[in-house]
């Protein structure tokens, strides 16, 4: 099993910044095989959506709504993925979830961290 823990959420004013972190722990063999790390978010009344993801070779993908404002990065030595969020907007308000894994063999979700952006 792989446990996933997110941190770094909070309340911030529009235009501000936050950095989210997501760390994996547990089965060291599964952790070593992680190839995919992604951040998703779910706003009230909406479906969960991809924000950004990064593969083991460093390839990244971003939702159009966050391009140029958010940056995803990973530290393989720490089994951690980060999401730097700049120029935050009220529409970025959501619960942010981390997903790690080696699809299709396994993926693990965290419990989420709440981000609230006030106008």
Order of helices and strands: EEEHEEEEEEEE
What is the approximate shape?
globular
Counting H and I runs of at least 4 residues, what is the number of helices?
1
Report the helical percentage. Answer: under 10%
Please report which band the strand proportion falls in: under 5%, 5-15%, 15-25%, 25-35%, 35-45% or over 45%: over 45%
Please give the largest β-sheet: 7 strands, mixed
What would your notes on this structure say?
The protein has 119 residues and is mainly beta. Helices cover 4% and strands 56% of the residues. The chain is built from 1 helix and 11 strands. It has one helix spanning 28-32; strands spanning 2-7, 10-13, 18-26, 36-42, 49-55, 60-62, 70-75, 80-85, 94-102, 106-109, 113-118. Strands 2, 4, 5, 6, 9, 10 and 11 form a 7-stranded mixed beta sheet that branches. A hairpin with a 4-residue loop joins strand 7 and strand 8. The N and C termini lie far apart (40 Å).
């Amino acid at each position: 099993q792989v446990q996933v823990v997110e941190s770094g959420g909070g309340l911030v004013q529009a235009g501000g910044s936050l950095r989210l972190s997501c760390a994996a722990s547990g089965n060291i063999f599964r952790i070593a095989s992680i190839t995919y790390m992604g951040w998703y978010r779910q706003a009230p009344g909406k479906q969960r959506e991809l924000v950004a993801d990064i593969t083991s070779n460093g390839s990244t993908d971003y939702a159009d709504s966050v391009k140029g404002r958010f940056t995803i990065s990973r530290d393989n030595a720490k089994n951690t993925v980060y999401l730097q969020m700049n120029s935050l907007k009220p529409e970025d308000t959501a619960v942010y979830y981390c997903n790690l894994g080696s699809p299709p063999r396994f993926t693990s979700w965290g419990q989420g961290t709440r981000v609230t952006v006030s106008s």
